[in-house]
Amino acid sequence: MDGQPLRGFLMPRTEYGGEEYIVVKLRSGYNIGVRVKPGTKIKVIARGERKPGFIKPSLPEHRSMLPRVDIISTGGTIASRVDYRTGGVEPALDAEDLYSIFPELSEKADVKAKILFSEFSENLAPEHWRRMAYAVEEAVNEGSRGVVICHGTDTMGYTAAALSFALEDLPVPVVLVGSQRSSDRPSSDAASNLISAVATAVEAPFAEVVVAMHEGPSDTLIAIHRGTKVRKCHTSARNAFKSINIQPIAYYDLTRDEIKVTGNPLRRRGEGRLKVKAEFDEEVALIKYHPGMDPKLIDWLLDKGIHGLIIEGTGLGHVGVKLYPQIERAADEGVFIGMTSQCIWGSVNMNVYYTGRDLQRRGVVPLGDMLPETALVKLMWVLGLTREPKEVRTLMLRNISGELGEKRWIE
Amino acid sequence: MDGQPLRGFLMPRTEYGGEEYIVVKLRSGYNIGVRVKPGTKIKVIARGERKPGFIKPSLPEHRSMLPRVDIISTGGTIASRVDYRTGGVEPALDAEDLYSIFPELSEKADVKAKILFSEFSENLAPEHWRRMAYAVEEAVNEGSRGVVICHGTDTMGYTAAALSFALEDLPVPVVLVGSQRSSDRPSSDAASNLISAVATAVEAPFAEVVVAMHEGPSDTLIAIHRGTKVRKCHTSARNAFKSINIQPIAYYDLTRDEIKVTGNPLRRRGEGRLKVKAEFDEEVALIKYHPGMDPKLIDWLLDKGIHGLIIEGTGLGHVGVKLYPQIERAADEGVFIGMTSQCIWGSVNMNVYYTGRDLQRRGVVPLGDMLPETALVKLMWVLGLTREPKEVRTLMLRNISGELGEKRWIE
User: What is the predicted pLDDT for the residue at B54?
Assistant: First the structure.
């Protein structure tokens, strides 16, 4: 960029930028950070006015007649006035803020908004999943009809899986929602995603952890994905999130204002009584097998004392024979090894080929059509419950929250 | 399976099974290995006859009039009489074998068949890529009109990328082909894939490394994927291979016996003179970032002296701030770090968010829309040419074999 002129809107500074940067919103809608060096010239062409939409409206009168929905903010583009990651302001939000940015919300629900934390989602760790689980419990205990969690999209799939396991016998829907493009861009998916998420929290007949994100070319169809089966499959497209090996369990249609259930929900609304089980053991790892991989990587993991390992193998669940000694060592030391596939779609099947059988005899456990990311999170959660090898294996193979497809993929 | 009766065809023993196993072909077409333990009973119900198709035909008379196509076998399901991995026979093959299994081949080409090695593709390493590159060179020097490489599907994408870089100024097409279901199964894709691969080798107007595999629901449409842009995206489906971020560069339509070019080939047939550059540096690693990842993993890799690292980050190319110290250390030590995305689709873009800029300032190089697997293979190849950090960076960012999309993904 050096030596190039840039024309656009100068955005407010944020805590994230530091002193040496300014942020300019380009005509394309994207914000760009510019390092201010000796010689950088900034010329003000005109000054903008505060948009009327940004004046806080008074709360709608009828709000207490509407069902209560809790919106828990954890960071990300979706529920800040302007994308704080790209230089915007006010990561903080309350109900009035939300109604002012997304006026349709005031017709859907009596929103209780809470900022749990404000983190880039790539920085989230199991400790954050724990805090989210307890925040959901609090909302449920206070009578929430459904909970919406605003979340950065980068690791939303991991969090959705974590909450799917941590929130046992959930009686209401928990809807994670993000946006791929900030609400100040013309092509933003923030409003449609958030409104659909709140509507899903109110209207869904099921009670499970789901992700609500933009679907297909239309602006008005939002897919509702099962938390254990969803994955971000595009870096920038609005319809980046895909249900893997199943169809989305529902769609929210904004033109008709209605939810259409298309899958088999795990649990009906109102059944069960929430128990939070949110201990995650971080002494696990996920490795992706590749040609030329050094088997000593697994030795290092074992030396440092991991309690479990998920492998993204090739095809139906394979790794090269060079890794067999390390796999045998892991089994000897009682370390669980689960096999998933880097193909992403389909199921591992380690009963067909000799190599798969060889690996199973050495202690590797095939994890069906479980996503690698979900398998990792589940293993953290299972090891938070028990370290007894047989129990770990049993729980990893038990379908706890829809992570294992019904089809057993024996063709 | 213990205690369960199995009914099916008893298959011949293979070198892979070992003494303690027999292989039974079930009615579904799948072969299953059964461990023979004390107490296992085998009852012969009837004996089969040799199928007429398995009698070697004499070579077609007109064969020397046809263009020469070299078929190099490296293993995998595709070019053995019966899937040797599931208990079949004869991994070895010669031209007569091929004509007997796939009679249509004799109308397409004068086939020169060669067994380079017979390996499960998950066991292939850079050394095998090298041997394939030199086998292609030999065929080209002997006047081949095109080369077909039969390969196991598990790591075919990695090999396709490796050959795309190793075969500089390739004058003929090199077509990798595999099959997801063995040729003795009713739904096998072996014949249609192999015949299309040979036809592509003969007819394609372009000269680059491609993968020919089944496409969509039809039995007669075969997609021709660019070697640097293709990935196995399903464990068992016949249309498992997908071009990522581009369309397939061509299709072969078996109903019309014609190739339809749909993309922009890199090089026309007959241009250039092949130079093999097939040194791959194995002191590299590919790691997939995930919540709870231990940053000390990177320390271990640096301690053991890797020369380069590819990260599969989240979203547009992010990792948690916990990894920053290790990333700084890598940069200090002159170790190349390239960023790709675990989303698979889309491009990394590390100019939009502060976190992306932070990582770039620490030395991480964003690799556009390059596939993680291709980035790994390319880094091995680049480091085989040079260890000078500036040159490594320059080559990694140069579009050498179509690995970087034309669209720069600045939205």
Answer: 41
Alpha helix segments (H runs only) across A24-172: 95-101, 105-108, 126-141, 156-166
Q: Which residue of A has its CA nearest to B154?
A: A315
A/B interface, count of CB pairs below 8 Å: 210
Nearest in space to B222 (alpha carbons), one of B241, B202, B206, B203: B241
pLDDT above 80 (res A46): no
Q: How far is CA A358 from CA A54, A302, B31, B33, in A?
A: 63, 21, 16, 11
Q: What is the ipTM of this complex?
A: 0.86
Has residue B282 got a pLDDT over 80?
A: yes
Q: Are A381 and A162 in contact (CB under 8 A)?
A: yes
Radius of gyration of chain A measured on its C-alpha atoms: 23
Q: How many CB atoms lie within 10 A of CB A35?
A: 14
> E strand or H helix at A258, and its extent?
strand A258-261
Determine whether A153 is an active site residue.
yes
* CB contact set of A256 (below 8 Å; sequence gap of 6+): none
Between CA A150 and CA B407 the distance in angstroms is: 31
**B 150-209 residues inside an 8 A Cβ radius of A:** 153-155, 158-159
Nearest Cα neighbor of A186 from A52, A49, A30, A51 is A30
- Are B292 and A314 within 8 A, CB to CB? no
- Which of A54-58, A356-360, B16-20, B25-29 shows the lowest mean pLDDT across its residues? A54-58
Task: Flag the least confident range among A361-365, B35-39, B285-289.
Answer: B35-39
Length of chain B: 411
Compute the distance between CA of residue A227 and CA of residue A402 in angstroms, rounded to an integer: 9
Closest to A245 in 3D by CA, of A257, A234, A231: A231
Q: pLDDT digit string (tens) for B200-231?
A: 999 999 999 999 999 988 889 999 999 999 99
Type of residue numbered B253: D
A2 in contact with chain B, both atoms CB, cutoff 8 A: no
Interface of B with A in 238-267 (CB under 8 A): 240
Q: A240: pLDDT confidence band, cut at 50, 70 and 90? A: very high
Chain A residues in contact with B126 (beta carbon < 8 A): 291-292
Indicate whether A1 pLDDT > 80: no
Domains and CATH numbers, chain B: 1-51 (no CATH), 63-276 (3.40.50.1170), 284-397 (3.40.50.40)
3-class secondary structure, A115: strand
Give the distance from residue A237's alpha carbon to the nearest chain B alpha carbon, in angstroms: 8
Which of B240, B289, B322 has the CB atom closest to A343's CB atom? B240
- Average pLDDT score, chain A: 87
**Nearest residue of A to residue B347, measured between CA atoms:** A235
Predicted TM-score of the model (pTM): 0.87
Instruction: Tell whether the model's pLDDT for residue B12 goes beyond 60.
Output: no
- Which secondary-structure segment (H or E) carries A393? helix A389-397
Tell whether B31 is within 8 A of chain A (Cβ).
Answer: yes
Task: Identify which of A236, A345, A355 has the shortest CB distance to residue B316.
Answer: A236
For residue A341, the chain B residues in CB contact (below 8 A) are 235
On whether the CB atoms of residues B379 and B324 are closer than 8 A, the answer is no
Greatest extent of chain B over all pairs of C-alpha atoms, in Å: 72
What pLDDT was estimated at residue A298? 98
**CA-closest candidate to residue A103, choices A12, A194, A38, A214:** A194
For B:307-326, CB contacts with A below 8 A are 312-322
Residue in chain B lying closest to A26 (CA): B411
